[in-house]
Amino acid sequence: MREPAEVRRRRILAVVQSRGSARVSDLAAELEVSVVTVRRDVEELARRGALRRGHGVVRPVVPVARPARSAAPYDRGDAVAVVVPERHAYLNETLHGARGVLEEAGIRIALHIAPQADGAERPIVESALAGGARGLLIAPRWRGADEEDADARWLAETGVPTVLMERRPDRGGPLHAVDSVCSDHWYGVHLAVEHLVALGHRRIVLAARDDSPTARAVRAAFAGIAAARPEIEDWCVVLSAPASRSGRGAAAPAPLDLAALLRRRRATGALLHGDVDALMLVQQLADAGVRVPQDCSVVAYDDVVAALGSVPLTAVAPPKAEVGRAAAELLLRRLAFEHGTATVPEAVRRVELLPRLEVRGSAQTPPGDAR
Questions:
Q1: N or C: at which end does the chain have fewer Cβ atoms within 10 angstroms?
Q2: How many Cβ atoms from other residues are within 10 Å of residue 270's Cβ?
Q3: Rounded to an integer, what distance in angstroms lies between the CA atom of residue 135 and that of residue 74?
Q4: What pLDDT score was predicted for residue 58?
Q5: What is the pLDDT of residue 353?
Q6: How is residue 61 annotated by DSSP?
Q7: Which residues of the chain have pLDDT under 70?
Q8: How many CA atoms, within 13 angstroms, populate the side-chain half-sphere of residue 180?
């Protein structure tokens, strides 16, 4: 005989209250009903304000006070979903930094690669959470503000501890109260400009990508810093990789002719983001008869492969591995509360780590400088 709906819902509430959280799939198995039936029950209970629901996870409205455990704080087999964009070598070190911290704590990483498509992260995250992931580390691609806006609300409501890596949420937006760890890209650009200005460069060009939050932060920082430096006589910002520009239906601009731009603006210094584009542009300069650093000083931004070029490039090195480690440590604190080893949740944190400058000799005093 089928169990009345109200009786089943009381059982769901009892399980959730006793455990502090429960997966919809586990509830369905224990109650011997379909997942669809449990989802309907959960929706009705959430509508009444009796519980909170996330993606595949149900929690009580008031957190359950649990005594601290003396055993290990995490269960063997616990998994954390890590979601990073496809073809994004910059985040490889971040991923390895997070992996070391989580594996040391006995937590398994389930790595997911998001393809280059609008909205690719959401179905991946939902599938990972439905499969039992207890937490989420994510670096959304966010090629533009529209993608960030579209992802912000559902990311803020995953129902599991979530930490953003190398992403800075908008103030007052849905993700403002979500833990995040990122590099201080303003400071990284400051290091590059300070280095070039100290060498005597007064006319500087930034060639940067425009297809990620990091790229947009670098462009904005350079414009503000260059405009505020009285020593800089001329500066400009151009797109280093025309194909990276987002926006459907827009005609792709012509490839950047950096040598011609430098000659036209009489620039002697260039900041190039990211590394692969920087190496390609340095080769383009060599083909056009512009020597680095004799004719033009170059500083790269990212320092993933900057040291491997025929001319090893001085580069701004964001603390990629440290970002991953800090993000994983934040997530562990959240998971500790979920497991009952911490009785009070910690304040939400927005962590910024400072990049460093790796000097390799691709920048020197500009030609003709009296010093």
A1: N
A2: 30
A3: 12
A4: 78
A5: 96
A6: S
A7: 1-3, 18-19, 55, 62-77, 87, 242-253, 338-345, 369-371
A8: 22
What DSSP string runs through 264-295?
HHT--EEEEESHHHHHHHHHHHHHTT--TTTT
Task: Please give the pLDDT value at position 294.
Answer: 95
d(CA 209, CA 273): 6
Q: What token pair was written down for 241?
A: 């990789």
For residue 92, give every residue at least 6 positions away whose Cβ sits within 8 Å of its Cβ, in sequence order, or none: 304, 320
For the chain, the C-alpha Rg in angstroms (whole number) is: 25
Where does residue 17 rank: exposed (0-12), middle (13-18), buried (19+ CB within 10 A)? middle
Total residues found in the chain within this entry: 371
Q: Write the DSSP string, 312-333.
A: PPEEEE--HHHHHHHHHHHHHH
| Rounded Cα distance, 48 and 41, in Å | 11
First to last CA, the chain: 93
Plot region of 19 (φ>0 → left; ψ -120 to 50 → alpha; else → beta):
alpha
Helical H segments across the chain, by residue range: 5-19, 24-31, 35-47, 92-104, 121-130, 145-156, 185-199, 213-228, 258-265, 275-287, 320-338
Residue 283 tokens read as 């080769």
What CA–CA distance (Å, rounded) separates 182 from 221?
A: 15
Q: What is the pTM of this model?
A: 0.74
Give the C-alpha separation, 206 to 269, whole Å.
Answer: 9
AA identity, residue 263: R
Distance between CA 282 and CA 286 in Å, rounded? Answer: 6
Residue with structure tokens 């209970």? 45
| Residue-level pLDDT at 93 | 85
Model pLDDT for residues 314-361, shown as the tens digit of each residue: 999 999 999 999 999 999 988 887 665 555 567 888 999 999 999 998
Tokens of 234: 């001329």
CB 54 within 8 A of CB 159: yes
pLDDT at residue number 147: 79
